[in-house]
Specification:
Blueprint: H1 4-27, E1 46-50, E2 64-68, E3 82-86, E4 89-90, E5 93-98, E6 103-108, E7 117-122, E8 138-143, H2 160-170, H3 189-195, H4 218-224, H5 242-253
Antiparallel strand pairs: 1-2, 2-6, 3-4, 3-7, 5-6, 7-8
Length: about 260
């Protein structure tokens, strides 16, 4: 057993290392941090639409976009919650949520009818990641022209190799060997595929990375630093810049391969 003087000397010698270890652990992010989900609420606002309400001459191949004041909780929105009509006819289509733009997009399965008035309707069951809700259903109208040209350009395909440098710079200090935090290892493409892509989150009903859908990927909730996740955002001190977040979202939407 060391003498009291010797113990004090050892404590002074190792204190800087202990403090560094504590700081490092405190900065790490866990997808299963203890504590409840943050409680939000309030009113979710629609900030703009494309086409704008009352627009005329809208291209018949244009999607319908609605932008909101807060990121949207994608699982709160199903096919019956965003509908598009022309008279009594309803259009089939797909619904996409973009967390980074706080946008919901309805893309019709076929071109809209030319020179007719159309009505978009969104249910008040829609909610934000912070549990905010619409005060009432959202309804707006627009009139089509005869031309095409409204379809947006597709997002670029992004591979795991494009995303790996982001993980290396910002995430692998915690999410890497020897013991990756929460079992999420981002130190290599293979490790990320094994521990994140298609893997259930221990803190949510979502997958950590849902290939093809960044808005239903728990990892993106942590990265954007909004509500809707347990514990700390990722990274916990400085959130990634918008361009890197878009690269990661595009990687997930490209299939996370």
């Amino acid at each position: 057993m060391p003498r009291p003087g010797r113990a004090a000397s050892l404590a002074r010698h190792h204190l800087p290392r202990l403090l560094l270890l504590v700081a490092t652990l405190a900065s790490c992010t866990y997808d299963a941090d203890p504590g409840p989900l943050p409680v939000g609420g309030g009113v979710l606002l629609a900030t703009s639409t494309t086409p704008a309400a009352g627009a005329v001459g809208v291209p018949i191949d244009a999607p319908v976009d609605v932008f909101f004041s807060r990121p949207i909780d994608a699982p709160s929105l199903d096919r019956t919650d965003f509908r598009l009509f022309s008279g009594r006819s309803e259009f089939a289509g797909t619904i996409e949520v973009d967390l980074l733009e706080s946008r919901v997009r309805f893309t019709p399965s076929a071109p809209l009818r030319p020179l007719l008035r159309h009505q978009a309707w969104i249910s008040d069951r829609l909610r934000g990641l912070d549990a905010s809700t619409l005060a009432s259903p959202l309804v707006f109208e627009f009139t089509t022209g005869e031309q095409t040209g409204g379809a947006p350009a597709p997002r670029p395909a992004v591979s795991a190799a494009d995303v790996q440098p982001i993980w290396q710079r910002s995430c692998t200090a915690c999410h890497g060997p020897p013991v990756p935090v929460a079992g999420v290892d981002l130190s290599s493409i293979a490790a990320a595929e094994r521990t994140a892509v298609g893997v259930a989150s221990s803190a949510s009903a979502l997958l950590r990375v849902a290939p093809g859908d960044h808005a239903r990927s728990y990892l993106m909730r942590k990265l954007i630093g909004s509500l809707g996740f347990v514990g700390l955002p990722m990274p916990p001190t400085d959130l990634l810049p918008a361009a890197q977040l878009r690269t990661i979202a595009d990687w997930i939407d490209s299939g996370a391969e």
